[in-house]
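so i finally got all the pieces together for this one. its two components total, 227 residues if u count the protein bits. some of the lines might not be protein, just check the labels. i wanna see the whole assembly predicted at once instead of chain by chain like last time, that was a mess tbh
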Amino acid sequence: EAQVTQNPRYLITVTGKKLTVTCSQNMNHEYMSWYRQDPGLGLRQIYYSMNVEVTDKGDVPEGYKVSRKEKRNFPLILESPSPNQTSLYFCASSPRQGASSYNSPLHFGNGTRLTVT
Amino acid sequence: GIQVEQSPPDLILQEGANSTLRCNFSDSVNNLQWFHQNPWGQLINLFYIPSGTKQNGRLSATTVATERYSLLYISSSQTTDSGVYFCAASSNFGNEKLTFGTGTRLTIIP
C-alpha cells in the first residue's frame, strides 16, 4: 500500500532530551516536507527536501534539523526540545513540487503528537 | 510570499445540505490543493487543482486562476464529511513552497 509512515504517533519527553521523529515513504517521491500544526495557526512548514541531499528551510525551522540521505526517509530531529515545540507534526511527500509540480498531490503521514514538558 | 485565505472559518449544516467553501490567494499559482482533516487528525488529499474543475463523487472543486480563488463544493453532506478543510497554494514566483490557509471547520449534524 502506498503510504507515508511516521513514528512514533505519540511522544512525551522532557526539555533538552534529543529526539528523532522518523518519516518514510514507499512511493519513490522526490519531494518531502515537515509541517507543524498548532491551534489557530494552521499548518506551517518546518523544512522541505526537493530530492536526496537537498534540504531547505520552511517558515519555522528554528530548533529543528533534517537530513535526506535516502530518497524514502526524511527524519526530523529536535536536538534540544523545548515546551514551545509541543505540537502535532506531519510529514508529507509528493512526486515533485514547484513549477514542475503538474499533477503532484501531497500525501500526508498520520501525524506525531509531541509533548515537551 | 503568497497569502491564502479561507472562508468561512466555521460552518454548521444539517445532513443532506450542500456547502461551498472558498479559498482566495494573492498571487498567480502553479499549485492549488484541497485537503480534508478528519476528526481523528488524518489529512487526506482531495484535489490537485491549479485551474479548471474536477469532480470526485459528491465533492467537486473549481479554481479560477485569473480571479485568484478556488471553491470546494460538497453536495448531500454526510456526518463523515465533518472536519477541517484546508486549501494550500504555491506561487509562480518566489520559492514555490506550498502555503496553507487556516482552514474551514465543517460540522454536519445528523
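Chain B has a mean pLDDT of 93.
The first strand of chain B starts at residue 4 and ends at 7.
anyway lmk what u think
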